């Protein structure tokens, strides 16, 4: 009596709800949601405004709640009784009737006593192919389902009863019962019986039955055949599963139009229908409720829900989370609370300690190694600074400060390492008595020659930087420029201007040009080299001693212009005998014999070495030739012997003998002999040598040079060092008589 009253109330509430016209509109709050013992969730509903409105005249979701013959209320959709509605599966179960095909004893023929057909083709339903089966019960019976107009599909099966005794309860496999799957996506069907089969032939029951039924709810009973109580035992009411959708487009399409989109609840998702275009909604995993209502999907409390009984292992604690749950072990225990056991934390403590300790050790190692590296770096820096200070770096800096505008650079070790590619062997230009010379390219692109010295004398270390500064100020056209030095290494490195062409040594002994150099060119070379050395000796006080005068240290360009290189090595020369034993300054063949005895390097040592260079120019022989005969091995002694035996011609280069008058050559040889005097006292100074060579050059160029006039003979004075004053006089005489022509410059 109460329910009809409610229906009236709802009907009166309808106009208010009708104002919301969009499909996604929510149903009215006060709707009848139950009919009999059937729940009716939205989108289904009873009364307008309570269900999903799908268009004029279409009442798919609109149900009626009618009182049936037995006095109970049942929901109906059209004429179909609704058994229940599942939102989760998107299905509704409706009552379906059983078709009967029976033998009429009166008419003596087969007749369809009950025919039931379905057509929901204009609705939002489909007959679920997954949920339903066509079931045929009978003996000698063939039944089928087909679409209403019989053109879309047809499927069926045949049930026979060869022996009634062999029928089995629960087995629907052809004997007394058969079943067939139905196609997917159908929304109408008609059941038919094949008329040729008639149940009376060997059958007990009068009728055959065919029905599309929910597969899960049907179970064959032998009595359906033997006593024909199928209809009676089921009450003529078997469930049929219908799939429904809430929209006829796909989820993708539906989401695009928010106005009509049905999945309005939070934590809901759209599911495409398996029957074709169309979608329905579902609460996301871990949520349940009605996805078609705002906030319809609610979190499942898995910890308390009986369906999730004991979600965690017994001692574990269940903690509900939105959309899920967590299992955790009680305090002070640990383990797998989901399906394992929780154990006391004690053992875990050990693991924690072990982890802590290993992390600690790792940290300690890292800290210690970085501390070590920092210390190493500091030590390196200290070493560098010590070397820098030892080598007079501070003195040098002070000097540089007070003398602005110097083109002297103090290079760092890294700069020079980079320039020479870490002192690569391929960059070696030459190796000498006191070090190795590398070719290097500085960052600014300048090509330099870097000399790495072998040893440095303790006493001279302090002054080294300053001396380098002095050397760097030497500016002479015949001397290679010193750019700078590097002090932060144990033995300082010198950085020179790089002269690309060859050395005098290569010019004379290199084979190709060899003896083809004219005498004039040889004089030019000798003179320029002598000038450079004289300049070095006179430029500062005490004199700067080259210390390693030799043909490989004289660089020559194509115009035979000389550049004396590798000077300043003398500052590195040892002065005490102890070091001398281990290091012989200079090069064999050029060594001053007196220096060998006294260990005192003087400017006259350079003169001696220069004498040997003169001999190389005159003879084109090497200063030391280990392949030669015993007495010819050392060029200077070989030469001096030849001089004393008056067989100079034998040793001289044949080219100059044919080109030049013997007098001039003899004078040059005589000069060499003076330079090579055993006693340094008796050797001429470098200045005197330069002047004599200058004089000889002019004589060689002078047209009179070819004449052997008396006057000229006066000029060609030969003599010991003591006669140099005469030479100077003679020189002065020449310059007086013909200075304009000869272009003589007065000596410095
Ligand atoms: C339910 O009742 C209404 C009115 O009471 C009637 O019009 C309708 O046909 C009934 N439906 C069924 C399936 O009996
Ligand atoms: C048999 O057919 C007759 C004539 O059509 C009909 O009157 C009778 O009800 C039928 N019998 C049964 C059991 O349906
Ligand atoms: C049969 O019915 C379906 C829909 O139910 C329709 O598409 C088809 O055209 C019909 N065929 C005939 C021959 O009527
Ligand atoms: C099947 O079950 C029914 C009762 O449900 C019983 O009467 C019948 O004898 C059973 N049939 C067989 C073959 O066991
Ligand atoms: C059905 O069976 C009966 C008895 O065997 C027979 O008389 C009758 O002709 C059969 N009907 C058909 C349609 O085959
Ligand atoms: C969106 O849906 C509403 C209601 O179903 C409909 O009126 C409207 O035309 C749709 N818009 C589009 C762009 O499809
Ligand atoms: C809806 O979700 C539940 C569990 O989250 C799932 O079992 C069910 O199959 C889903 N329904 C559809 C129609 O996908």
TrEMBL record:
* Main location per the UniProt record: membrane
What is the protein's given name?
Protein kinase domain-containing protein
Cross-referenced SMART domains: EGF, EGF_CA, S_TKc
List the taxonomic lineage: Eukaryota, Viridiplantae, Streptophyta, Embryophyta, Tracheophyta
> Which organism does this record belong to?
Oryza barthii
Which residue intervals define the domain EGF-like in the entry? 299-343
* Cellular compartments annotated: Membrane
Which cellular component appears as one GO term in the record?
plasma membrane
One Pfam entry name: PK_Tyr_Ser-Thr
* Residue numbers binding ATP: 451
Q: Does the keyword Transmembrane apply?
A: yes
The Protein kinase domain covers which part of the protein?
A: 423-705
């Amino acid at each position: 009596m109460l329910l009809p009253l409610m229906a009236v109330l709802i009907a009166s509430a309808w106009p208010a709800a009708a104002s919301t016209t969009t499909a996604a509109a929510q149903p009215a709050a006060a709707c009848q949601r139950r009919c009999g013992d059937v729940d009716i969730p939205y989108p289904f509903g009873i009364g307008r405004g309570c269900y999903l409105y799908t268009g004029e005249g279409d009442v798919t979701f609109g149900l009626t709640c009618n009182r049936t013959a037995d006095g109970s209320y049942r929901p109906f959709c059209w004429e179909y009784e609704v058994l229940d509605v599942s939102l989760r599966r998107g299905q509704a179960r409706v009552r379906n009737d059983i078709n009967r095909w029976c033998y009429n004893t009166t008419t003596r023929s087969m007749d369809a006593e009950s025919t039931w057909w379905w057509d929901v083709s204009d609705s939002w339903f489909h007959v679920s192919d997954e949920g339903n089966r066509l079931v045929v019960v009978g003996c000698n019976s063939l039944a089928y389902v087909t679409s209403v107009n019989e053109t879309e599909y047809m499927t069926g099966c045949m049930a026979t009863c060869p022996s009634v005794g062999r029928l089995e309860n629960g087995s629907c496999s052809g004997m007394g019962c058969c079943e067939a799957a139905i196609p997917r996506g159908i929304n109408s069907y008609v059941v038919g019986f094949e008329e040729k089969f008639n149940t009376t032939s060997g059958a007990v029951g009068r009728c055959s039955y065919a029905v599309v039924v929910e597969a899960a709810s049907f179970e064959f009973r032998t009595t359906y055949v033997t006593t024909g109580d199928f209809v009676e035992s089921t009450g003529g009411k078997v469930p049929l599963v219908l799939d429904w959708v809430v929209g006829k487009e796909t989820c993708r399409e539906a989401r695009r139009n928010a106005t009509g989109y049905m999945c309005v609840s939070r934590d809901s998702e759209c599911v495409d229908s398996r029957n074709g275009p169309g979608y329905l909604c579902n609460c996301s995993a871990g949520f349940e409720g009605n996805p078609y209502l705002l906030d319809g999907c609610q979190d499942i409390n898995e910890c308390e829900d009986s369906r999730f009984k004991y979600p965690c292992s017994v001692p574990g604690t269940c903690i509900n989370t939105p959309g899920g749950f967590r299992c955790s072990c009680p305090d002070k225990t640990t383990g797998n609370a989901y399906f394992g056991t929780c154990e006391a934390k004690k053992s875990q403590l050990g693991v924690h300690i072990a982890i802590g300790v290993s992390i600690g050790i790792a940290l300690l190692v890292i800290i210690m190694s970085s501390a070590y590296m920092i210390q190493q770096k500091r030590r390196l820096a200290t070493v560098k600074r010590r070397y820098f200070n030892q080598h007079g770096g501070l003195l040098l800096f002070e000097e540089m400060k007070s003398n602005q505008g110097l083109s002297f650079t103090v290079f760092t070790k890294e700069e020079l390492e980079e320039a020479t590619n870490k002192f690569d062997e391929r960059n070696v230009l030459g190796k000498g008595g006191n070090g190795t010379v590398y070719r290097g390219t500085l960052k600014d692109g300048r090509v330099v020659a870097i000399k790495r010295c072998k040893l440095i004398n303790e006493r001279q270390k302090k002054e080294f930087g300053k001396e380098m500064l002095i050397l760097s100020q030497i500016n002479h056209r015949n001397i290679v420029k010193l750019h700078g030095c590097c002090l932060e290494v144990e033995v300082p490195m010198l950085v020179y201007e790089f002269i690309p062409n060859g050395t005098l040594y290569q010019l004379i002994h290199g084979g190709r040009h060899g003896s083809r150099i004219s005498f004039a060119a040889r004089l030019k070379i000798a003179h320029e080299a002598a000038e450079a050395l004289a300049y070095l000796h006179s430029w500062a006080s005490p004199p700067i001693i080259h210390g390693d005068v030799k043909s490989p240290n004289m660089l020559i360009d194509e115009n035979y212009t000389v550049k004396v290189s590798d000077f300043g090595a003398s500052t590195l020369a040892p002065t005490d005998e102890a070091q001398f034993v281990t290091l012989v300054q200079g090069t064999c063949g050029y060594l001053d014999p007196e220096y060998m005895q006294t260990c005192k390097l003087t400017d006259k040592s350079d003169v001696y070495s220069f004498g040997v260079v003169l001999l190389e120019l005159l003879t084109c022989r090497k200063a030391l030739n280990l392949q030669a005969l015993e007495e010819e091995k050392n060029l200077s002694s070989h030469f001096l012997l030849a001089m004393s035996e008056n067989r100079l011609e034998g040793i001289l280069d044949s080219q100059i003998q044919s080109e030049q008058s013997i007098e001039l050559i003899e004078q040059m040889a005589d000069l060499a002999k003076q330079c090579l005097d055993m006693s340094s006292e008796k050797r001429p100074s470098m200045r005197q040598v330069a002047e004599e060579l200058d004089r000889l050059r002019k004589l060689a160029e002078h047209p009179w040079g070819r004449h052997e006039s008396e006057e000229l003979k006066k000029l060609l004075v030969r003599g010991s060092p003591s006669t140099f004053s005469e030479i100077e006089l003679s020189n002065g005489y020449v310059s007086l008589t013909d200075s304009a022509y000869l272009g003589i410059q007065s000596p410095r």
